[in-house]
Specification:
Helix content is about 70%, strand content about 5%. The protein has helices at about 5-10, 15-35, 55-70, 70-95, 100-105, 110-145, 155-180, 185-205; strands spanning about 40-45, 45-50. A hairpin with a 2-residue loop joins β1 (about 40-45) and β2 (about 45-50). About 30% of the residues are buried.
C-alpha cells in the first residue's frame, strides 16, 4: 500500500530536470518558509519553540532528494538553500532601511516590519549554521545506513535513523544562536527539548514520505 504514491508519480513520466526542480524547489521553499516563520516564538501548553515547524519536513524531504538524485545532489541542495537564505536575509535588511510611506509608518507598519524582518537575518544565520551541520550529518548517516547495514532494511528505517541523529543537532544549535540574549536560558532549554519532541512527532507522522518515490530512478533519460 505504501508503494501507491510512488506508482502514481511514476505515471507522470518526469524528466530528470523536472524531478530535480520539483524536489529541490520544495526543499528550498520549506527552508525559506521556516526561516521567516521562526521569527515568531510560540507557546503550546508547556512547549516553547519557534514557529518554523515546517522545517521539520526538510529532513525527510532531503532523504527523497538523496534517494532519487544521489548524495552530491542532496549536498548541493543543502548548500544552495543556505546561499538563497543568506540573499533573502540581506534583501530584508535592505528593505527595512528603505524609507517608508508616511501613513503606513504612522499606522505601525514600519515598526512591525522592523521587528519581524529585523530578526530574520539572525534567524537565518542560526538556521544556516544549524541546517548545514545537521543536514550534512543527516546526509552522511543516510549514506552510511543505505550502503551498509541498512541496505536491505525497510526504507522507513533510514528516515528514523538519520533523523534521530540530525534533529537533536539542529535543535540545540538553532535556539542557542537565534535566541541567546533574547530569551532566558531556562526558555532555551525548554525550546531545545520542545524542538526535539515536535520534530520527532512530525517525523513519526511523515516517515512514509520516503515511499513517495521508489528506490529506482523514476525520471526518463533526456535527449
Amino acid at each position: 500500500m505504501l508503494l501507491y504514491p510512488a506508482f502514481f508519480i511514476m505515471k507522470l513520466k518526469l524528466s530528470k530536470t523536472q524531478l530535480t526542480i520539483i524536489l529541490v524547489g520544495v526543499y528550498i521553499f520549506l527552508q525559506m518558509a521556516a526561516d521567516i516563520a521562526a521569527a515568531k516564538v510560540i507557546v503550546l501548553g508547556k512547549i516553547i519553540m519557534d514557529a518554523g515547524i515546517i522545517y521539520s519536513l526538510t529532513f525527510t524531504w532531503r532523504d527523497l532528494i538523496h534517494k532519487q538524485l544521489g548524495k552530491k545532489a542532496a549536498q548541493t541542495a543543502i548548500i544552495l538553500a543556505g546561499v538563497i537564505n543568506v540573499i533573502m536575509a540581506l534583501y530584508f535588511l535592505f528593505v527595512v532601511k528603505l524609507p517608508p510611506q508616511a501613513e503606513w509608518a504612522a499606522a505601525g507598519g514600519q515598526k512591525a516590519f522592523e521587528f519581524v524582518f529585523g530578526l530574520v537575518p539572525r534567524i537565518v544565520i542560526a538556521s544556516i549554521i544549524a541546517e548545514l551541520i545537521s543536514e550534512l550529518v543527516d546526509t552522511e548517516v543516510y549514506q552510511w545506513w543505505t550502503s551498509g547495514i541498512g541496505k536491505r532494511k525497510p526504507q522507513w528505517m533510514r528516515v528514523i535513523i538519520s533523523n534521530s541523529i540530525s534533529i537533536p543537532i539542529d535543535s540545540i544549535i538553532f535556539p542557542l544562536i537565534a535566541f541567546s540574549g533574547v530569551l532566558p536560558f531556562s526558555a532555551l532549554i525548554i525550546m531545545f527539548l520542545s524542538n526535539i519532541l515536535v520534530k520527532a512527532i512530525i517525523t513519526a507522522f511523515t516517515f512514509w514520505m520516503i515511499y513517495l518515490v521508489p528506490e529506482k530512478p523514476i525520471y526518463t533519460v533526456e535527449e
